[in-house]
Specification:
Elements (H helix, E strand, L loop, with lengths): L1 E6 L2 H8 L9 E4 L6 E4 L1 H5 L12 H7 L2 E3 L3 H16 L5 E5 L2 E5 L3 H4 L2 H16 L3 E6 L2 H14 L5 E3 L3 H8 L12 H9 L5 H5 L3 H19 L17 E11 L2 H21 L2 E12 L12 E10 L2 H15 L6 E13 L13 H18 L42
Parallel strand pairs: 2-4, 7-8
Antiparallel strand pairs: 1-6, 1-7, 2-3, 5-6, 9-12, 10-11, 10-12
The structure holds a DNA duplex (18 and 18 nucleotides).
Length: about 425
DNA sequence: TCTGGGGTCCTAGGACCC
DNA sequence: TCTGGGGTCCTAGGACCC
């Protein structure tokens, strides 16, 4: 048995933790740069606001219903997520943190000793008590079915918050009118294809012929169908795998044409990317830099260049990666365009302790390692970018738009809420 | 005026080897 | 007129996830 626990309207719920007066108020949280709606409280969902709509398209609705709008505050969400995960993980030996707001639990053997529904109700209660975050839990014999069960909670088991598919009879019963497009692993393309061929529900897909699935949805689709049949094909990944590629990119608050400002922004991304590389103990063998103009402005000239640079020695050194990024940027930069976004990819990732030397290249890795280690520990102690490279600049003319950012209630001392005991 | 930022896996096809 | 039978590796593109 597996369970999937997920946080309801996670980002929106996080904003409510320290502003409880927003409990019944409709709220949305926006993507970076205050662009699109990425989280909605249930009041907003009821108003018909879809996931991912640009906020400017619903500004009338916002005004009319007094929707509270938040910029995304990933520091807050990340911290609350780790509190939720640590509470849940105390109930089970093996678990997989699948995303910022979801965790798979391995309940193998639990069903003989526990009433799983009661057990999960207790988990829900304690998570809510410890963190104030509401969660839903789906339980079933495979991860795909647990995902589906979790989805069913919101439709049919709102009051208990738990849905348990004990055996294939439960599964068949529940999947009879489960939209095939709501399954984990069925996106827009597959949904259209499946419905065109008469597989409108999860139950119909479960009974589809293997050859047809293999041919049209590849082995990934076949795994999905087998999981629906109760045959586990997707393992629990307890240790997150090392990234095979690392990307850091951002849109700019405003369009930018000036090379020196692009350099500041790109080197900040390059620096961050090198930090991610060091965090997982890897080197990269090549980098690639890209620029984007604003694709929604059809009235302006468009330009989407990118450039890959191979490094002489695999590295995770910030200065090496920043200077390679700068070189690439100079090769693709053209004046006269209004750029909206830039970013860097790190590729050819290898373990840092497994460095292939080059007869013709001086290896100063040890020296660089010492420097990076010092910089990383200073930034850990004093806060992000306390110590940074001069090319990153200080003015941040390229910074994100974040007009409705909440405080970092749990991670910055000056933002910690105060309680006046005399008043209460 | 205003439209996010990350990732993974699989397949087909081409280039190459003997 | 007739032109084999194995492989590997890489890349681009397309599907998916949050």
């Amino acid at each position: 048995m597996y369970a999937l626990a997920d946080c309801n309207n996670f980002y929106a719920s996080c904003e409510r933790v320290f502003q409880p007066h927003l409990e019944k108020v409709p709220i949305v949280v926006l993507s970076n740069n205050d662009g699109c709606v990425v989280a909605r409280s249930h009041e907003v969902k009821d108003l018909g606001v879809k996931m991912g709509v640009p906020i400017f398209m619903i500004k009338d609705l916002v005004k009319q219903h007094g929707i509270k709008v938040f910029s995304s505050n990933y520091v807050l969400y990340g911290d609350i997520s780790s509190r939720v995960m640590s509470t849940i993980s105390s109930y089970v030996q093996n678990y997989e943190v699948y995303s910022i707001d979801e965790v798979f639990l391995d309940f193998t053997g639990f069903d003989t000793n526990f009433n799983l529904v009661d057990y999960c109700k207790e988990i829900r209660y304690v998570v809510r008590r410890n963190t104030r975050i509401p969660i839903s839990i789906g339980i079933a014999p495979t991860k795909t079915l647990a995902k589906a069960a979790n989805k069913l909670v919101k439709k049919r088991f709102k009051d208990t918050g738990v849905c348990y598919l004990k055996d294939q009879d439960d599964v068949k019963e529940m999947l009879r009118d489960f939209d095939v497009g709501d399954l984990w692993g069925v996106g827009r393309q597959y949904e259209a294809l499946l419905k065109k061929h008469g597989f409108e529900t999860a139950l119909k897909l479960m009974n589809a012929p293997d050859e047809w699935i293999r041919k049209n949805l590849s082995v990934v689709g076949l795994r999905l169908v087998n999981e629906l049949r109760g045959v586990p094909c997707i393992d629990l990944d307890e240790v997150p795998a090392k990234k095979k590629g690392i990307c850091v990119s951002r849109s700019f608050g405003n369009m930018i044409s000036d090379l020196s400002i692009l350099e500041e922004s790109l080197s900040t991304h390059a620096n961050r990317a090198s930090e991610k590389l060091r965090e997982q103990g890897s080197n990269c063998g090549s980098i690639s830099v890209f620029l984007h103009t604003n694709r929604f402005r059809s009235d302006l000239p468009q330009y989407f260049p990118s450039k890959e640079i191979e490094l002489p020695l695999a590295t995770n050194d910030a200065s090496n990666i920043i200077s390679a990024a700068q070189k690439a940027l100079e090769l693709i930069y053209k004046p006269g365009y209004n750029y909206k976004k830039c970013g860097i990819f790190l590729n050819d990732i290898t373990p840092a302790d497994d460095l292939q030397l080059n007869l013709f290249v001086q290896d100063d890795t040890d020296k660089k390692n010492k420097l990076n280690k010092s910089v990383d520990s200073l930034n850990k102690k004093y806060g992000k970018d306390s110590l940074k490279y001069a090319i990153q600049g200080t003015k941040k003319e390229w910074k994100l738009r974040q007009e409705n950012l909440s405080l970092s209630y749990t991670t910055r001392l000056s933002d910690v809420p105060c309680v006046d005991l005399n008043k209460s």
